Amino acid sequence: MNFRKFLIAQSILIAAGSVVFPFYLLLIKNVGDSYSQFGWAYGLFTLTAAFSYPIIGRLGDRFGDKKMLLIYTLGMAAVMLLIPLLYEVWQVYVIQIVMGILGAVQKNTEKAFLARNKDTDNAATRMGNYHLYISLWSGIAIILTGYLIDFLTIASLFYFISFVYIIASFVIVKREKI
After folding, report:
1. Where would I find the Major facilitator superfamily (MFS) profile domain in this sequence (predicted)?
2. What is the pTM of this model?
């Protein structure tokens, strides 16, 4: 996978995650009875990611960045379909554990891909441009969602973002021009 394709895929992925994050927080609070349950949900996410990183690192070296990003995109597409169906706190906890693993896949793969990039002379410039593009698309997506959500239900937003993750998977698997 070349840098341009990686940048496009990551821009889509980060924007999709940024769009649903505020609404996911509302959903978690509405399912639970207390802020302690909210704390447990996010704690499970973070702890699962932390303990997953070493295993995911080894899997990333074995299977490659492209396959790992596909696992992330397709996994998140499935999770987004399930989120509107959550109504019990234990379901949120299970989803948080799955999202912790998938989040670790995404973050580890992102950093591994950037570390494997052979352009060491312009590494800081490339990294700056990378963060500019993914942050720019994320911000635009969040602003547009603020307008769009007035016409949609929150559940339909999660279904739409599931579709966006599928689009990102097509960007990843698309053959590169020689």
Report:
1. 1-178
2. 0.87
